[in-house]
Amino acid sequence: MNKTKFKGSAMLNPVPVVLISCKNKAGLQNVFTVGWIGTACTKPPMITVAIRKERLSYEYVKDTMEFVVNIPSKHLVKEVDFCGVRSGRSIDKIKACNFNMIPCDNISVDMIESCPITLECKVKSITELGTHDLFLAEILSSYVDDTLIDEKGKIHFEKANLITYAHGEYFEIKPNSLGSFGYSVMKKKTAKRKNSEKHKNKTSKHK
Fold it and tell me: Beta-strand (E) ranges in 44-177?
């Protein structure tokens, strides 16, 4: 396989794309799009978010040390793009996107009702890097749309129509799985049983 060498760059693709809502101490709210976000720790649940210093939301998040990660579905892709290219300094993006904002339980920032998955976050530390600062935050609570949870309590993220961002473009995540965690070392008997259960569940849903 031939490869072309580039200078060091942030070429990790694809990445999740989310809408982050935030509020300053004066009560002003804003929503902005973030692609550089990731899981940092399981216990306590922590995530990292990279934010440019010149963004209005950088000021808001730093002011209250709180924000909400709203994970959008593909029907919100236009709003996701809009909130990434327009500044809250010149336009009310919440009003422009017709977002219905709902209060959170643990922080002062509101969540976007139309996003199927929401994470309440409290900033623990800020690390200066360069063009971006890295915000490390603890997830205080998570909210998942009831339509994504089955009768056994399992969350079906594959039904949420989530999107990703890769090199300037948005892509939908296909619902078909390529495999489950550990399938490469799974015993044949176990794999056969799991496939049988999966087929049975699909069949029962179509009855």
Answer: 46-52, 66-71, 101-103, 110-112, 117-128, 132-144, 163-166, 169-172
